[in-house]
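Hello,

Our lab assistant flagged a job as stuck in the queue for most of the afternoon. It eventually completed. Since we weren't sure the result was trustworthy after the delay, we are filing this so someone can double-check. Below is the sequence as submitted and the structure that was eventually returned. Let us know if re-running is recommended.
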Amino acid sequence: QVQLVESGGGVVQAGGSLRLSCAASGRSFRPSGMGWFRQAPGKEREVVGGMSWLSGRVSYADSVKGRFTVSGANAKNTVYLQMNSLKPADTAVYYCAADRSVWPAGVLPTSRGNYDYWGKGTQVTVSS
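-- returned structure --
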């Protein structure tokens, strides 16, 4: 059984930083890529960024470009989300997700339906 577990969430002031981690486990776990999503109260879950394990390509949503960085250790089945210059608008539950399908040209899928496994999420709260 595949499990994804996020950690590193918390409360931070605007302008601060947090680093989220996502550790994956499972004997049959062979993702082609992993993504980070977030969901704010009353809003749809949206993609933040992700990494293709096969190509190494990293992609981001426009709203976080230049502030967030996705990195990972394939051998450890772990992916990270470094979040800098946080804004109150970044407040949300953050989820990691894994996709078994190959990403054409390593392009990050933005639809929730593309992902096969999900973590339970970690809360990030940015105060003004």
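-- support follow-up --
The delay was a queue issue, not a problem with the job. The result is valid. The longest strand covers residues 18-25. The chain has no helices and eleven strands.
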